[in-house]
Amino acid sequence: MKGILVLITALVFSGTAAAEPRVRVIDGDGLEVGEVVIRLWGIDAPELDQTCELEGRTTPCGEDARFVLDALVAPGGLVCETKDTDRYGRTIAQCSVGGADLAGALVHQGYALDWPRYSGGHYAAQEAEARESGRGLWAGEFVKPWDWRKR
Question: Is 64 helix (H, G, I), strand (E, B) or coil?
């Protein structure tokens, strides 16, 4: 399945638009497109029930990451290139909306981390900029999602 390009848009047949597959944001790095579960390639976002600390308060950073991804996919026209399938059967894909890489945008806004184990540092520059600017997760204290899951 590597390298397959999946275009998730309304299709036009005989002048009528077919329904665009339903896109549901699962969490900060996961989507469900129709029956296909997609995990965004190269990043890791807080788990849905993960919390972080901001100015001495506990915040729902996992929910925040999902909210940001939902806003990014809202315009529609999702395009995903399949990279792999993970051990859970999810499609690992690099996805964009309007030409903007969703994973890169999440990392740039500070709501996901580059996962060098899988990305080879592809999103390292966006992460460094978010960290230096104190955006998103970097505005407070958090546990890296891959470490949080080990707890």
Answer: helix
pTM of the predicted structure, to 2 decimals = 0.86
Query: Topology of 18-148 in CATH?
Result: OB fold (Dihydrolipoamide Acetyltransferase, E2P) (2.40.50)
The first and second tokens of residue 74, run together, are 């809202």
The DSSP secondary structure of 130-149, one letter per residue, reads HHHHT-GGGGSB---HHHHT
> What residues does 113 pair with on adjacent strands?
44
Residues tagged active-site: 39, 47, 90
CA-to-CA distance for 32 and 90, rounded, in angstroms?
10
User: pLDDT (tens digit, 9 = 90+) per residue, 93-113?
Assistant: 999 999 999 999 999 999 999
Span 41-84, pLDDT tens digits: 999 999 999 999 999 999 999 999 999 999 999 999 999 999 99
Task: Give residue limits of the domains in the chain.
Answer: 18-148
d(CA 103, CA 43): 6
